[in-house]
Amino acid sequence: MAELETIQLSKFDIEEYLQDGDATVAACAEAKAVADEVNAEGYENIFLLGIGGTYDELDMVRYFMNKYSEVEVHLVNAAELNVLGHRRLKKNSLVVTASASGDTKEIVKAVDNLVAQGIRVVAFTRKETPLGQLATKVISAPVATGRCDFTYLLFDAFALRLLNLRGDFDRYDDFMAQTKNIFHDLVDIRIKFESRAEEIAHKFAHEPYTIFIASGALWGENVLFSMCVLEEMQWIRTRAVTSAEFFHGTLELVEPGVPVILTKGEDECRELDNRVEKFCHEYTDKFAVIDTAEFAIDGLDPEFRPLVSPMIAAATLHERLSKHYETETKHNLAYRRYYRQFSY
Amino acid sequence: MAELETIQLSKFDIEEYLQDGDATVAACAEAKAVADEVNAEGYENIFLLGIGGTYDELDMVRYFMNKYSEVEVHLVNAAELNVLGHRRLKKNSLVVTASASGDTKEIVKAVDNLVAQGIRVVAFTRKETPLGQLATKVISAPVATGRCDFTYLLFDAFALRLLNLRGDFDRYDDFMAQTKNIFHDLVDIRIKFESRAEEIAHKFAHEPYTIFIASGALWGENVLFSMCVLEEMQWIRTRAVTSAEFFHGTLELVEPGVPVILTKGEDECRELDNRVEKFCHEYTDKFAVIDTAEFAIDGLDPEFRPLVSPMIAAATLHERLSKHYETETKHNLAYRRYYRQFSY
Locate the SIS domain: which residues (chains A, B) (predicted)? Predict the structure, then answer.
């Protein structure tokens, strides 16, 4: 961080990011307190409720709950829940949801129904939004930047605390202590990744179609980038596929010139990623690998790496690549022709 | 069926299909008997285990188990289970899997581990295959055609019987009685769909990319066609997306000329499909809808329609379209350059 004042990241205000990061770290205390309350009340099982980007963000919570705990957890899509319901969802279930805007239509409708049935909903959103008004308990992000790395730390502070209180994740305090400077590391990681982001965007942003592959804790971030950034904000065609499923169909598309970006993680699924890497290196010359293991988090125990890898993917694959795709395509990330522009 | 002898379906032997269909209906008794045995032993929860096409086929079992029952059910990918494990998977869990070849590497490895731990595995496969040798109980398909409509009826005979024995699906006998001639209906449906199949394939098979949308009970069949047929067997780029998620990213890609195929089902998610249909009719001229509701099953109660809609999608979207894509592209459906051709 010595060179901070001389380093520039395109379309990124380092000072503002670090202030927001400090505020996010401070807000973790509230997330922990809400987890303590919910645990004291007890719960039978957990429903993670999202749609689009929030569904993708919650996927890493599903990942680590299944990793550490026997707790029964379901990740459900809000629009589907609204029509299908779910018979495992009971009075004593705990529903966890999120919305930066606080007015995502499908989520607001779902939470309205849930609360009317007396089912608890913990929402990561601002209190004054429609979702904030409906939810049983609100965990407020201090800044509504839509940055996934901030969101993930708040999710961790809440959901890992739930596991801690069940006896499934003993080192909660260590994890929170070791990540209190993580946003400084994530600035360094952005700086380290910058030239690669530029290079990858230059090579891939003009392609009519790209295959995006990931697995385990990084799957959600992979879908988020390919769907919510490239499809929605750049109108670029993508195919997101897990490292496991890649070998049961999508592999046949690969040949020289076919663009593939693999984001390698650090959890149990890494061996599936390695298999994809080996295959793609052999059969396409248009291949990039973003490996979260290449980026250090100062003072972090190795056992916590799978938990922070989604934040690293959010900083690299997602945030930095977005900006450089935008520079290459000259297609403004903020522009939508349909989404939330009118009723459909 | 009066005109049967004069009608031709391209690359489809009606007589052979009906014989295989009769054999499949007869084999349902074995599926039911295995369900009776498993139920008598008891089980704590259910894991549906697949990869690629079998994962997609089992998705409709997950759908109707969640629809009718409180039973805890998880659909898991075999390659992921092999590296991640699953803490809800216990000694008294019931694992259900399938493999037409009986030698799918990831499934054989998973079942080997499961059986070694004393966990029961029911496999839909042939007894003499590696999977058949390992599994605790085998339900043999009388024909290994890889036809999903046959597979679905056997899955129904087994899994709906499990629900019936739990008290969650009272009309099991009615359902099985009303579907004993279903393969005759599915021939009629193929004949009725033939000119549309030809027309859709002619319009879409030469496109470099197509978006495939479905939801609910048809989601698995939609992925199966887009990934296991078009990607794997035709080397055509596709994007499969649920009707719910479509509105959170993919919609921004749609404009005149962008190819979209929606397969509409008959379950609770139909209203999500309707929303997609309305949107796509407005924003692209390259749009086809396959609606399972247009195809009659003689003597079937309306409440059973969502259960048979995957078979209708298998006959239309999948089987007939595959053949007509092949005719258009002149790319042999049986040819693979990588998949199962060598070790990777």
Answer: 34-168
